[in-house]
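Researcher: Please predict.
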Amino acid sequence: MPTFFIFSCFFVCLHTMKRLYNLCFLIVCILFFGCEKSIVPESNNSSGISLVGISDNAKQNALTIAEAQQQPTGTPICVKGFIVASTTKSMSNATYSSPFAGSTALVLASRQSNGTNTQFDKEELFPICLTDASKGIKEAYNLESNPQYYNQYVFISGTRDTYLSLSGLKKVKAIEVDPHHVVTQDEQPDAVKEGESIDNSEEEGTDEDDVTYGDEDDEEEGEGTDEGTGNDDTVMTVAGAIDAPENTKLTVKGYIVGAAMGDYNGSVYYCFNKSELSNNGESFKGYKTALILADNKYDPERSFESQFNLEDSINVMFVKLGTIKDKLNLVDHNDYHNKLIQIKGNKGFYINKNIAAINEVNSYKFITP
């Protein structure tokens, strides 16, 4: 009897210890895995959630493209606009339609893109550097890998800086897509013009715009007829170029009689006074974006209204300087006033259809009258 009792107690204890062992093992597992940090995605690209959120207050006070461009270098800002292109190395490499090339930079604008390279003036664009952005942003938002963000309305926080020769954003801290933004009429893309094609060809470039232009010191007698059809071998007067069809490639000769600039409201401002332009103050920096050509020199002894009709562009033609702004503007190069120049580019318009312009300048040279 005592022997049986002893064996019974032994088996009971052994069974109890096994249960205790299992219980202890279960507790250890719960403690170990329960303390493990949950792994969740930092972002959800399909829903537009940013890697790091942007506060409602920051979004309410976000700057437009035009406002952001006016901020001093080094200022932390939150800017809002549409992602219209991607690029790498320079703005001349920007692609405005899929497949996108370049994962190092985004391009913002205040309106959506129509997929062509000719819709925007350079001054409308705001490049966003991704190479020095916070961890994960470049991979999550570059258009090359994430084409779903093309033409999406976004908020981006970072530091205002000069990038790719333009006012832009560096040291990006956060990007947030607003999937609920309602596109207004002013934010609609331009209609694609007949014969206008999408060109996504990428050129080699550097951090500065790398377009090659004619030697501005190469003065020679211009050749060709005064009027023409607009082919590259024909040199046209300003009057002849004004009547040329839109998108015609043309070569125009004329006198640089003034400077101009436009704003986002469609207003155009111009200045013919050489002494005012040479002032080079803050109020005149906008006049670096366009020139005014005419077939006759500007006479400072007479009012410009008595010499030129700007409202209907009857005897003057504007030149969008774009990438050659630093080389040819009248604010920095006051001695170009009333000089005769020959310019190659495409016939277009400046701000509105009433103002004829030379766009996409690819070469120029000063010539002897």
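Model: Helices lie at 2-35, 56-60, 65-69, 137-141, 238-242, 274-278, 325-328.
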